Structures are given as C-alpha cells and as structure tokens.
Amino acid sequence: MEGDSEEADAEKVREILCNDCIEEEEKAVLKIAFFNTKDYDRIFFTKLEEEKGPGTYNCELTYLESRLTRETASLAAGYDAVCIFVNDDASAEVIDILHQCNIRLILLRCAGFNNVDLEACRKYGITVLRVPAYSPYAVAEHAMAIIQEANRRLHKADRKVRENNFALSGLLGVDLHNKICGVMGTGKIGECFARIAKGYGMNVLAWDPYPNQKLAEEGLLKYVTKEELLQKADLISLHVPLIMGENGTYHLIDKDAIALMKERVMLVNTARGPLIDAEALIDALKQGKFQAVALDVYEGEDENVYNDRSDEALPHSITARLQMFPQLVLTSHQAFFTREAMQAIAVTTMENARNFNEGKDPGNAKVV
Q: Shortest CA distance to 269 belongs to which of 251, 243, 296?
C-alpha cells in the first residue's frame, strides 16, 4: 500500500509539472502597437530582440509611424497594449478609444507621464508602466552642454567661423567657476547636474519639496527655499516633474519668479516645457534679463517635437519668437538621446511588458 501511495504522489507531481509546462507554452503573446516610431526606435528595439533571442519577452511589436492621437487611436484595435512617447496624446478622449479597442496596458518609453490621463486609465483598469530612469547622465550632461553653448555663444561662433568671420564681437561669456548654481529638483538627474556644476567649481544651492539629505550631508549642495535659490543663483537648472494643480510645478518659473532672479542670470530647462511660462520668459528676454537661456523643452513646442518642419514658416509661434534672441539656444527634446539611454529604454520597456504579461510586480515602473 505504501508503494502505491508513493506512486500516486509521484503521478500527481508529474501531472502538476506537465500542466505548468503547458501553461508556459500556451501563455499568450502580448501584442503591442508601437506608436510614433522613429528609425532609431526600430533599431534599438529590434537589436534588443536579436541580442536576447526571439521570444525572450513573449511580445509582438507592430511599429506605427503615427503619433497616438484622437484620430489614430483606433489603430490600436486588435492589440493588447500601446507603446507611446512624450509627445503622444493619451488624454481622456484617447483613453476612451483605447478602452473600446480592449487595450489593457500603456507602455511609456520615457519617465514622464503628464501626457496620460491617469484618472481615465484607473476608470477602465488600464495599467500604465513607464521607464523611471534610463540615463540621468545623458540629460544632465546635455543641460550643461546647452547652457554653456548659450553662455559662450558657441552657436554663433560656429556660424561666424564657417563664414570666415573670426572676430570675437558678440561672443562674450562669463565664468562658471565660483558662481552659484541653483538646482530645482534633486532626483537622479538633478543630482547628476549638481555634480557636474560642482566639477566646474560652482557652489550648489538646491530646492526640492522632498530633499535628499544625504546629498547635503556629503557636502554636494545646500538646500534652501525656492525664493532664496531664485534670488542667489547665477545659473538655474530645472529638474522637477510637471505637476498640474494647486501647489504643482506648472509655470514654476513665471514673471514673479523671474523678477526674483539676478540680472544676467542663466536658465536651463531639460525637464518639461510648461515649467516655464513662455510669455513671461519672452518678456524678460526682451528686457535683457538673462545672460543665457537654454531650452531642450519649452511651452508651445508640441507640433515641432521630432518633426521636420524645415520647409515651413513659423511666423506666429513661440518657437519663432524664442529664436530671435541671440543669448538663447533651443534643442528639440534630445537631452535623453544617447546610445546608453536608448538601450536602457528598450530593455526597461520590454521588461515592463513581460512583467505585465506574466503578472509580475513591475516595481517603481508602475504609474497606474
């Protein structure tokens, strides 16, 4: 009898293991509509699949060139998930359409999620996963690069030399050494920027609603009030998320904030455009307030981001008005754009998809 019992137990174990194998084999492939595809997206995501091997993530990507908008959201029909970027529209109206298409997951291949209506996602039970960190160094290094380009007028200098004009007129900059750097937001990117500024010999002041006291304890920076930072800093760099509503960060830099700043201050934004009130900034630029301004993001950029509009005139846009000022440098949402960052975005996005499909905890990638 004892032998029969052992054999029966063994048979049950074999049956369980066999069922698990069948479940694993039959796990549904997650079908993802990849919106707003650029050549480099296809390259890095395809290369990842080649390196990891087909089937590693149990996902099927369909690359679409269209941005996600109200007009294109119906293209998601027949898919389980959509993958979108910072300039895609995931407003409530679009989420309604995605729900009708039976979309269960929104994969953000970026850290920010201010373009997603989270309440609508909660209403329909749509999961939203992001890439919480890819390369903070990429963004921080770009911030310092473009503010120095604006400060030392490198954009003008290059054009002059290419036209055989070697005069130095109009190219006067200022030293950063011994100046005060104000870092607004001390997450990973803000910390990286503070370390770069420290390397230039700057004294770093910081403001953050949730200060990281370890950074202060090591002597990297000193936390002060927002008002004190605005009043004392020679260079101000923005690294906070865009938060709407009362006590949010929308128009963190408005006319009142600019009025507190020093004359000939420098300002750089590689975070989110609406952190700065564009009209207030333009008014201050007209009055000669700034030594240098560098913007990788800015209010009113939406129609321009990642689009080639070189054959169009932009006479009435904020972009055209900003381009009038010689002390200002504009780039188009490229702060993140390094090989290392793109590799990290591809890996994290696909891991998020696999975790969702397998019911695993996505950790801090989860937004909703």
A: 296
